Every structure is written in structure tokens, then in C-alpha cells.
Amino acid sequence: MKGSEDYDQRAYKVTSNLKPYHEFKAKFGRILEEYDIEFHELSFAMLDHFEKKKQKQEEFERKMNLCKLLKKVISDHNPTWLFNVVPTGSSVTGLATEKSDLDVAIHIPQAALIVEAKCQGRKITEEERKIMWREMQLEILQIVRLVLENNTEIKPYIDWKEGVKLVQAQIQILRITTIDGIECDISVVLDLFLSSMHNSFLIKHFAEVDHRFGLLCAVVKEWGASTKVKNPKDGGFNSYALVLLVTHFLQCGTSPPILPNLQHLYKNENFFALSERIFPSRLDFGAPLPRPLPQQSVNPATVSQLFLEFLYYYADFDFHKYFISVNNAMIKNRDTLNMFDPDAPQNPDAPRVRFQFPTMDDILKMETDVEVNDEGEEGNGEEDVDN
Q1: Where is the PAP-associated domain (predicted)?
Q2: Architecture in CATH for domain 2-53+195-366
Q3: Would the pTM of this model clear 0.85, i.e. be above it?
Q4: Nearest-CA neighbor of 259 among 290, 296, 234, 221?
């Protein structure tokens, strides 16, 4: 058994943390066998529920058309801008449910060059540089806001009961809602490395490696919403953080591992970003993995069983001692939980999470209700909304 586990870890380039898994099997293995049919039936019910609620192709196409329109009207009014409008998040990963938000990044490294030119010959602290970058992002958002409010081509698509809202939080965004119900958050990224796009690309491939990943993410997010574990405004997890929890669990917390460490398996293929300095210049979201995954033992667990394993894994996880490294597919010693963004651990605008957990284990032990919810956006903390 130990030899097989070691082989599977090496094949998928993960470092497993299997003590909770073996404890779970010892405590509940007999129950899982006795109610095997019921667990399968529950898993099929979860799958059916998710299939009914997930984002349809027609909605995906409407979101992509909105991105194209945004690009066109912004370009029309700002012909000297060198930028792209990049959809990110669940809408492009395969994890979205119907009517989930659309996250869009205006990727404009050209603006960073303007900021850096202003810094030439001056003694600028890192904090002052961050403030200048933030001011530039805000200036671009204000220009885009004027475009949205005045361009006759896009105005008819916007629900003006909601208007164009400027949300000044940790990540500044414009929030619009279209007349056909798409809620769109528009951010500005000046870095050459667009972490949210590379994260989305990685998660999309995790979803394609094993269908249980997307389904378990949906179940965990719904459970998180019902228990207030998913509650970023009050210091809880955002949706992206929950996806990272699921990713780590399926890599390191069950046996055999269900998800591989894709970044390390294909590190020489220039396919996935390895850091904010080492990444492919172009991504093709329709491209398959460069080569087949290595063969390893099959994990036959149902989604319902995996959900219980997930709860057990994190119920006694010492969040004050360890942090999760998705990039390395392992846990490391740390005083606080720190789920590193798999691509950009040094990027201040990257969606990463650092929380203290005084009550997380209690919540996990007490709560077992599961409903399936839509994909939330990354939490922005307390919001200051300018209507």
C-alpha cells in the first residue's frame, strides 16, 4: 500500500498529506461500504443538479460577445491604447453556473511604462510606486466609465437602473449589469503577467482532468455559502479560495491523488505559468495538454464521498501551523493559512488569500448541509461604491 501511494505521488508530482485520509477510512470505511448505493445515488443527484444549473453555451457566448464589444468601444475612444479585454474566472474555467458574474481584466502594460517613466530620476519608495500604479488604474477606469456612459453602441446593452458603479476596494473595479442579466466586473491590470488569466487557464485544465473537480467545487461553494465559510466581506473565504482548497485536497488529501501538479508535470513545455517571471506569452484556452498524463492508480471515490473526506481533511487541519502551496502541491509550515496563488505569489493584485481561522474547524465539524450555488467573484473586502 505504501509503495503504491509513493508511486502515485511521484507520478503526479504531489506530496500527499494522507494522515486524515487514513483516519477517515478507519472510522467510516464500513459505513461507506454499507451505504455504497446511497452514496452513488447522492452523487448522481449532485451531478444532475449541477448540470441543470451550470452555465450554458449560449450564456458563455453572450459574455464573450460583451468582451468583444467592450474592446471595440474602448478602442474607438482611445485609439492609442495598447490593451486587451480578457475574460477570467469561472466564466472561462468551466466552473460557472447560470447567471454567474463575468470577471474582465483590461490588460494594459503600456500604462505601467507611463508610470515608470514618471519615476525616472526620482527616489520613489515601493509604497509610493504602488500608489502611483493604483492611481493609474483608477484613471483608466474613470475613462472607461465615461465611454460606457456616452458611447451609443454599448449604452443600449447596459441596465441603467443599476448604472455603472465604481467600486474602490483592494481591487478597483467598474461594475455593470447588462439588460440580459450579465453582471460584469471590470478591473485594470498593468503588470505584464496577468495572473487571473493564467490561474483561469490552470483551473480549466484541472476541470478537464477529472469531472469530479468541478462538481466538488460547486458543492463546496454552496456549502460554504450556507455556513458563512464563504463570506469574504467578513473575513471568510471567497470562491477562488474555496477552489484552491478543493484543488489541494484532490492533489494531496486523498489516495490515489485525483489531480496532478500540472505546472510541474509540464514545466518544460511552456504551457502553464511557473511564476510571474516564467510564463507563456500566449494562451490557447482550447488547447489540450501537451502530452497525456502519466498513468497511475485510479481513485474510484464518488463526489459525495469526496465531500465528506474534504470536510474531514480540513476539520482538523492545523491552519496556524501549515499553509497550502498549490504551486508545489504540498503543505508547508506557516503561522497562518496562506493559500498561494499558483502563479503569482509576489503579485499584489493576484487573487490570493491569507486568513486566521479561530472557528473554521468548529464550522466544518458542525455543518454538513450541501446545496449547489453559483460561482462568486473574488472577494474585494469592504466596498466603497460610487454610483
Answers
A1: 303-341
A2: Orthogonal Bundle (1.10)
A3: yes
A4: 296
